[in-house]
Design the sequence.
DNA sequence: CACAAGCACAACCATTTGGTTGCAAAAAAT
DNA sequence: ATTTTTTGCAACCAAATGGTTGTGCTTGTG
């Protein structure tokens, strides 16, 4: 997990972490994640049929790495890339929490109406 | 990918469909979604304690609307905003599909090793 | 050795993003 | 009738994003 320490105006130090939401926001990165879901690949293999340049892919890999969604293993001159999908739990948890609240919104409205009736 | 061409509230003309991944990529938009999960609110209520200006919020609402994650209802001079969290299914489905594939990666490796042993 | 494969790093570029300020319109309240 | 609330719209801005080309450094291979 990479933490970006940003020194802002007034000498403020902000600690920014790239998050998983940002990681999966881009369609190319989702494609990379799906390719890697099948197992580790080297960068050349990821570039194959991606439609963009190696350097473009490298930038996306950097983002994914900074989110802790992939890890690297050097093997000779090749760099193998492996997915770490545990991070996606955060997204699912957030979605479920929101939907749980959303599912209760009518109940809450009923409670509100009941309360106002009493007064 | 579904492309909707809708000319409706907010003066939005939707030609390309923004996707849900982009909608939840921004922390401010996630905050808005969570606020709305409890039930409909007008724009002023969403702005409350958000730390950014009404116009800033309006831009985020436009994005959320274009993703089909919120809908509007005019009531006098107030514009009420309601969440449509069904859209989040797409995210959960994608995550689950990736994780399913990921869970099978060792099995695949075993199969591969078994195949090569035969030859 | 010479050469190719695989990759990292830097510079550059156009567009998008995420915010701001200012102003105008319409509905409600006084 | 005037003022206040609530909102919409446009212009502006800095920074981030998503790509590109070019260069050069390792590491295997003939």
Sequence:
């Amino acid at each position: 997990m990479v933490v970006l320490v940003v020194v802002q105006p007034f000498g403020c130090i902000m600690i920014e972490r790239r998050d998983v939401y940002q990681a999966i926001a881009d369609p190319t990165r989702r494609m990379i994640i799906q390719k890697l879901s099948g197992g580790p690949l080297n960068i050349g293999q990821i570039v194959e049929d991606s439609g963009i340049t190696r350097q473009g892919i490298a930038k996306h890999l950097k983002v994914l790495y900074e989110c802790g969604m992939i890890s690297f293993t050097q093997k000779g001159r090749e760099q193998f890339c492996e997915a770490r999908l545990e991070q996606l739990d955060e997204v699912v948890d957030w979605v479920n929490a929101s939907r749980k609240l959303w599912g209760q919104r009518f109940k809450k409205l009923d409670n509100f109406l009941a309360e106002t009736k009493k007064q």
Notes: The radius of gyration of chain A is 21 Å.
